[in-house]
Specification:
GO terms for molecular function: NAD binding; NADP binding; oxidoreductase activity. This is 3-hydroxyisobutyrate dehydrogenase. It comes from Capronia coronata CBS 617.96. InterPro entries: 3-OH-isobutyrate_DH-rel_CS, 6-PGluconate_DH-like_C_sf, 6PGD_dom2, 6PGDH_NADP-bd, HIBADH-like_NADP-bd, NAD(P)-bd_dom_sf. About 55% of the residues lie in helices and about 5% in strands. With about 475 residues, it is an alpha/beta fold. The protein folds into two domains: about 190 residues, 3-Layer(aba) Sandwich (Rossmann fold), CATH 3.40.50; about 260 residues, N-(1-d-carboxylethyl)-l-norvaline Dehydrogenase, domain 2, CATH 1.10.1040.10. Strands 1, 2, 3, 4, 5, 6, 7, 8 and 9 form a nine-stranded mixed β-sheet that branches. Helix 6 links the parallel strand 5 and strand 6. Helix 18 packs across helix 19. The longest helix has about 30 residues.
Amino acid sequence: MAAATSSSDPNSKSNSLPQVGFIGLGAMGFAMSTHLVKTGFPVRGYDIYGPTLDRWQSTCNDIPGSRATIAKSPADAVQDVAVVCLMVANHHHVHSALFDEKNGAVHSLPKDCTVIVHATIPLTQPLAVRSRLTDEFKRPDVKLIDVPVSGGVARSINGTLTIMASSDDPKNLEQPDAKVVLDNLTTKGKTLFIIPGTLGAGQSAKALNQVMAGIHIPSASEIMGLAAVNGLDTKKFYDFLVAKDSAGKQRPGWSWMFENRGPRILSTSPPLASATAIINKDVGIIQDEEARLGVELPLLNKASDVLKEVMKTHAAADDSCVVQWYLGFDSDRSNLVVERGGKPTVAAEQQDALIKKVATAHAIVHLISAYETIKFAKALDLMHADQRKQWYNMIAGAAGGSAIFSAVIPLAFEDADGVDAAFKKFARERFTGDLDNTISLINHAKEQNYHPILLEAAVEYLKSFLS
């Protein structure tokens, strides 16, 4: 094990921080846990994959004043800790890490410790974990907090994640040891959202964000591919959309996912920051709720179709590879987005106007993703005034955010004629003159055997708003 070190000053901040057991050191867990180590927390890390654990130990050893140690099992990771963080892939892994017959953490959990589940899991699973802790393992003393996160690896590294926290006892969220951990992951608590309700409420809030994220990840690839087949300088197109307008506002085609994924889409060898399997899993959770609640989210389902196709061959690859699926894996144009960077084939005098048309097309996708998000919020009964304000603020500043979402959702909340009326008014004001141009873009792409699946579906929605 790595040697733990600490300040000799008993009044130092680092000595007052609680011992943390961190289970799950994938891309997000690695970044979150090493941020805690850099902040001064004594962290005991565990991952089932040995090479990852070795890399984590090496990274922590290079952190000045590191108080990190490695564990041999989940049970070993939680000995003598005050807080346990679980950042594993899915709910099956949550149950395995906690309840495995031989090495499960439950066998070593200290009395009255706090277990924080950061994984995105089905909405019913936090209560299922609580039931097993209390009824099966007779550990009602263990405090359980449901805390999914949003913001990607970059914001994990910086401790600026958006976090959605809920529990079966509100006091658990104010418990000092848990609170100091969460505050240090969320811009000193500024992006920590306490979600009213019991366990699972945090997952409900995350699911709303993931409706947007689940559409925006494949749409970022789709729109970059569309720009490429139209002969645009893809780097110039990306730079246009991420640059703010003259009034200092994000352009209508901007989304957090587009800005975040764009550099990886423009790279021939992008780093593995978020595997396709992760967003596919999250979308699957939403679809299960979609069926349970009887709500229809057609654009999200189209996005799911795309992700499932990519999953057949590239489940473990970074999800920026979706663009290559659109262009054809292993085809002679699979890297067309990269090749078009700085090398447009469209005439210079046409390029700026065409960039704006493609950007508007992306904004249409964002309009429909915002509409499906508010539909899902209604199905989850999250439309009371205090609830909707909270989830709007949360998503607007998280990975699901887009310029269109920030513009249209407040109008939908305020319109006396209802959500549908608000979206129709917004669509007529913003997109009435853009429908023909967007249809022409789609038809031109299809002539080149490029199918902008999400844009085509979004346009059908738009037609209904404009009719």
